[in-house]
């Protein structure tokens, strides 16, 4: 949802990059070996964990084969067994499991925003062939009702499926809160694919009329620019010209501050953008502008707009979008130019970018909070904000007398893209077709995944509470404590490069308190019901339900700004907040964790993953601070190559520092987990 530069990292490829010393084939094989090695460590810790469980439960006076602990036959254990049996052979078709290593891994929409297209037609044909083979193989795997093959899920998928199970669980009468009933009703209406088909574009056209119309059709009320912008931002979570979200300032971490700020960033553009590292300028990728223009015409046709006006309005829409994109910049450039987290008061921002009524727009977005001119906001690309303001002022002057209203059209198109998930399939397919035409090779996600994500967006507090109640009550705190204690012991035994690094890191580790997220733990059913009291859902009208979800999203932003507390949502990795390490409840879902699992299985799976996450979080540069990553990783890697050596393989490549660190992290995480399992 947000382009948070502290969270999203954009992968940028430029034509000026130097060629790699190793052949492409070797590099791909090298990366594949690394990920297979990581998976092997994960499989090993599972096996050793189960073996440890059997050893500890055997009677001391009987041989192991005569006395084995009774098998775990709980539903969770049986399901985990099915996952393991279906998934523990990644080596037969490694590219099905390690897509990135094989060069076919897809990037997210935000990752593609500043990529340079240097893929030939032959490359595209090869990617299509690999994708077709992969999809054909997946159809041969036993499927399930989710539309995904039965295999060991990644953590994000496991969490999504857990939320789906909560939302699909049968109603329990009076024991179920009204808030949970509303979340389930929203999910149910979202899963009803037929309802939007019956009404077509009528819901959007009705909403458009309520907003005063738009220039491409008769009856536009010439609504005020800033009034419309504030309305879209506040009621529909739509940010056409700039993005707005809430977050902390990393510069305040040293002061243990938990304050959150309004953050202003460049928006998400609907088309790929090229970055020229020589001129340090962005521009829309001309290869895809025709497809972008065509998709605009298709949207207008679906909305019943006469074809006679399509050329003019789509031309202006594309021209304005590409003009705005000129001042956008990839993350690495903004980092190098110190364009992130620049502090301004709202009054200062008004002086720098006067085309936007910043106070009115931010007041509307964060109502009912008191927003004033003296409030600080964090800006992440001031040159873009200034360019955006100048562009808006220029286009207002040029087109005011003509009545073409391109700025208003641009805002309505932004609203349309926000609401496409609630419209009939023709709109989604138009968006999907352009996405594929612009180089997106990702497969379409199942409808249930989109509906889970939408439900979580509106009912995040409720769902975090439900996950904790159902999955993270028993044994979670103990696992966190044991893993962190084992991790402390592991780091104490490292060979540090100097005493200063050792003292700083060990003191940091000891000062932090790992804990399970508790922000929603103490909420009663009555408090949850009050939180969602104004939500009234219609089983026959998903479009209106979706609009209410957007309002809930706005309220969530306001709560975060007001209280500085954020629910875990779909988080699956730890984070640091002041002196605490927050472990999200989303980590404690099956098949990685369950209260009915044997201890060794919980610690072998989630324990090792948690240890790895903590090492990445706390020691991102450990290879520069201690000798162990280099020495131990080279030893492990050499041994791994020796036991997996193939006759035709040439082992001439060496490990980079980052690869050495990753191998050491994986290996150390296994050690930490086994130490307490």
Give a short overview.
This protein has 677 residues and is mainly alpha-helical. It has 26 helices and nine strands. It holds the Pfam family Peptidase_M13.
Characterization of this structure:
The two termini are 38 Å apart. α9 packs parallel to α16 (406-419). β8 (575-577) and β9 form a beta hairpin. The model is unreliable at 6-29, 53-68 and 86-143 (pLDDT under 50). 53% of the residues lie in helices and 6% in strands. The protein has 677 residues and is mainly alpha-helical. The strands form three sheets. It has a four-stranded mixed sheet. It contains 26 helices and nine strands. It comes from Cyprinus carpio carpio. Its cofactor is Zn(2+). Residues 11-22 have a biased composition (Polar residues).
Could you name the key traits of this structure?
26 helices, single chain, about 675 residues, Kell metallo-endopeptidase (Kell blood group), three-stranded mixed β-sheet, hydrolase, transmembrane
